[in-house]
Amino acid sequence: MNDASAPAAQPANTEDRTRMVPQIDLANLITKAGGYGLRGDEYDAATVTLASWHQVETNRAGVIIDHEEIVMAEVGQSQAKVKVAQTGRGHWLTGYDFRNSIGGAGCAPGVWDRVAFNEKDDAIRFYANSAKTWFKRQIESGNSCLSARARDEAAKMIDLLMRVINPAPPAPMQLSLF
């Protein structure tokens, strides 16, 4: 067989491609609205300003009312979800929910987010990488409360999350002549 006709090798599914995820920096927008650390009426006014700019409906804290939750990976008692909300301007604000048998971390998408994404898939890949880091730290933490089973679940979660970060290329399609 001629080497030129052999299919190209696919990269291993270990590379961190999230460095290539384009992000929208919202820090200047938040600064113009009054910045972080506001309280009372100033905070409420800034939240309304940011919600108007993003063209979204929020609660008083600036959390977007209507958002979607996507399970990126789940093994036993471990789960990684991303929360996404498309704004009226077309970009995506995000939150996350990572958990295992002894704890978790999370937040909801809101107008005080410092980063947005142009594409929903970019947001999902970005938070899949964040979840991978979270579960890796769980394994490496040495926390005596984390059972061997929970460590095994975390390792499986990392593998599943790598598939979200670096999805397999679509299988080639065979064209039919008849």
In short:
Helices cover 34% and strands 20% of the residues. It has 178 residues and is α+β, with helices and mostly antiparallel strands.
**Low-confidence parts lasting 5 or more residues at pLDDT below 50?**
1-16
Helix tally equals 4
Strand count, sense and barrel status of the largest sheet are: 4 strands, antiparallel
Strand content: 15-25%
Overall pLDDT level:
87
Binned, the helix content reads 25-40%
Instruction: State the shape.
Output: flat
Write out the strand line-up for the largest beta sheet, numbering strands in chain order.
2-3-4-5
Oligomer: single chain
Nearest-angstrom radius of gyration? 20 Å
Question: What this model shows, in words?
Answer:
- It is a single chain.
- By secondary structure, the protein is α+β, with helices and mostly antiparallel strands.
- The chain contains four helices and six strands.
- It has helices at 27-33, 40-54, 120-140, 148-165, and strands at residues 24-25, 68-75, 78-86, 92-100, 103-107, 115-116.
- The strands form two sheets. The chain has a four-stranded antiparallel β-sheet, covered by helices on one side. Strands 1-6 form a two-stranded antiparallel sheet.
- A hairpin with a 2-residue loop joins strand 4 (92-100) and strand 5.
- It is flat and about 55 Å long.
- 32% of the residues are buried.
